[in-house]
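Homework help thread (please don't just give me the answer)

Our assignment gives two proteins as sequence + structure token strings and asks us to describe the second one. The first is just a warm-up. Here they are:
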Amino acid sequence: MGDLERRLYDLSQSDMYPFHMPGHKRAMADRFAPEDGGSLYSYDITEIDGFDNLHHPEGLLLELQERAAALWRTRRSFLLVNGSTCGLLAAIGAVLPRGGHLLMARNCHKAAYHGAYLGNLRITYLYPAATGCGIQGSITPRQVEEALEREPDIGAVLVTSPTYDGVVSDIAEIAGAAHKRGIPLIVDEAHGAHLGFHGAFPETAVRCGADVVVQSLHKTLPALTQSAILHLCSDRVDEDRLAWLLTVYQTSSPSYVLLVGMERCLDILEAGGEELFDRYACRLKTFYERADRLQRLRVWSRRELSKEEAFGLDPSKILISAQPIGLTGHDLYERFRKSYRLQPEMCQGGYVLMMTGMMDTDEGMERLWQALLEMDEQWASQQAVSVQYADQQAAEKGCPADYVSLVYGSRSQQMSLTEGLEAPREEVPLEQAKGRVSGTFVTLYPPGIPLVAPGEVISEEVLEAVSLCRKLQGSVHGICHGQIKVVIS
């Protein structure tokens, strides 16, 4: 057994509970007994006779895609084995010609930026609201309307909803604003494949008027990592071009292991999805009711976000604030892992994200609640830890209340994304980069949103954002050994 396999095996045998993706929560073996199917390796084939071809489906895979389209009620659904990334690349390429103009939310995943680069697109950014909770909020319909009025040559709109943190935008109104001008709306719904299946969760963009919706099945549904789906919902997008671009951006050797995982996911949704979602919604309801009893720790819910900050919030994303007790998100993240054997999805700023799904267990949710209760009681019993002291500690650790504005604030764009990446570049020490134009992405990962993108000016605010993220022990990509690539002026 190799080192990688050994580590994976050890994890599978441990008591570390997964409050992170993938959505199957490593529990599929319990649902599919050995006699119900073969081993992982026995399913790993290529496009041999009788097994269809994902790039030209006519049999089994066509039927599977038609099942997905019927389940989500779309015009056509495409199975993706290269994750939501390939779906976003294809969607962006299908809605705009090379050199076109894209209206895009600045909090989109880096894959959207890659799609814009490949199409040599001009980008106008929409900046989401900064919430009082320390997360990014929604993109508003008014923002979209104003941008389209200001720049009438915009040819398509792209937003992320829900965000990594579960914030949902008003997709129906945004779609209406785009369609009024005859242009399509792409929604990156990678974190919302579960939406629309139960009233406890927001509606899916598929049924809110979006033209193309990309979902990561593996993030919140019981599917294998890298499994995703693209839904074509209208005739505003060239279907043939979209299908062709998927052959460009997907591997020519699609994994049948991933495809059978998607088939099993559809089986579960069709056969027992309603009952599973009922139980899931009940678990979450119980958890949030209990969380109201916490004295020091704070679990955010919809009521803590104003309508102006967020149109909606997906309750499947459990956001736990450490700031009331004077800790950073990273501090709390490490306590969950080391003291309670609970693996969070991510931490950022002053909070931790626990990602839940329909395959979570009562036992797992109980462990999370008991961990929260124990930590809360410990801090509540320490009378010396006053609110004032906690605020002081948070400030000293560098987790300010306006974290979002500092880290994801507006950037000055000196040249296009493509120009920034393709212009002659040089590496300079980060501290000497102030005022220069970035020739690379500097990204906080997760969530994968650029702190600065190619073509944008590396301002004092950018340097402060990088410093703050590092101070909070975030993983900043794009700076190597203290050096950053800048455009040669």
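The one we have to describe:
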Amino acid sequence: MKQFLEIAKIVATQGIRGEVRCQYYCDAPEVLCEFDELYFDKGETPVKIIRAFPHKNLVVMKLDGVSSVEDAQRLVGKILYLDRDDAELPEETYFIQDIIGLEVKNAETGEVYGKVSEVYQNGAADVYSIKNDDGTELMFPYIDEVVKKIDVEGGEILITPLNGLFELEE
């Protein structure tokens, strides 16, 4: 598991005092606003967050040492990382980056369906996309009726597919 995880991307400047607009990669903008320190360069370069607040589906941040629009412009396109040790996740909650690549198996038969290639967060339940060895894509919702166990350390997700979930047309 990676120690430093992507949490946001700087997409634009905000005003003339060096603030930046960030597209967040977490459940809600308020999550990004909770951190006092983030990192550039995949965790190599720490940056102190002076202030952060949600604004129009983005997060506006004032970063230490960034005091002009020119300074901020140089950061556009850069990725911000968090140190996983700084994040407190509720039990049974995982970073999406830890889910990607897990092997998905049938909890009853042990049949391997493939590996998680994508997680879509667009509704009442996340949807996991699996790619199997022949390139076929399968999808399943992250709901209690389907997902029986996620074992990040063991590298697998155990599921019980609903009837017809993985039925492919001939």
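TA reply:
I won't write it for you, but here's a hint about the kind of observation we're looking for: The chain has a mean pLDDT of 90.
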